User: What shape does this take?
Amino acid sequence: MYDLIVVGGGPAGLTSTIYALRKRLNVLLITKDLGGKTNFRLALPWVEDYQVIKGLEIINKFKSELEYLEFARHMEPADKIIRKEKGFIVKTRGGGDLETKAVIIATGTRQQLLNVPGEKEFIMRGLCYSALSYAPLFIDKLTVVIGDGDLAQRSTAELATVAKHVTLVCPADKLKVTNVNEKLKDAKNVTILEGHQVVEVKGDDYAKSVTIKDKQGKISELQADGTFVEMA
Ligand SMILES: Cc1cc2nc3c(=O)[nH]c(=O)nc-3n(C[C@H](O)[C@H](O)[C@H](O)COP(=O)(O)OP(=O)(O)OC[C@H]3O[C@@H](n4cnc5c(N)ncnc54)[C@H](O)[C@@H]3O)c2cc1C
Assistant: This one.
């Protein structure tokens, strides 16, 4: 029986596993990959590699420690965790039943997708889900944020501090009331389009425009150096 099973090999799971190893616990990391979402980063035609600190570089030390300690990792999805009287059983995709005294679930979060043509094609190539991370790369650029809640509005406010223009495409009829509403309405480089749906993302090597539809069905196109889906 393990002392601890950690499910998920992103920054949270890797850190937990390494610290458990350092405390000499009998620990196993069960994961689909090492690095999790830090394996992805937004590619932009005007940004060179040396200009950004990659998440993966930051956690590489932890990652390499685990790559070396083969006995402490199991590269397979965990499908089910069953609570027992004393501890847990973690069932893996390959049919393994692994017993442990404790479990840390570090499987991360999943972004909410737009589910429109072009989205999958341009993910991380001009289109992404974290304006708060990438806003500083959009100095004097045209940007589009999609969403109507708190996250979309905070993302718009963040981008507005550096971008030439931010268009907030709000699928709902009215923007949700938040404490940045007024700031956005006053900002000279922000346009808010309420009641508009995104129908397509277009581009070449990178996303370049967002096609939207208003309530009357009128289609228009917004040029965008960066498109941010912020619908959480
Ligand atoms: C493009 C991009 C840029 C980002 N930029 C920043 C940034 O600049 N600053 C910042 O703070 N954050 C940033 N983030 C967010 C940051 O990467 C995440 O917050 C971080 O990766 C979350 O770590 P985590 O360990 O909680 O989850 P994740 O990184 O999502 O890792 C989850 C892990 O669980 C595994 N897993 C999931 N389900 C199972 C299962 N059933 N069985 C086994 N394994 C499973 C996955 O394979 C993965 O290894 C960015 C994210 C993305 C995508």
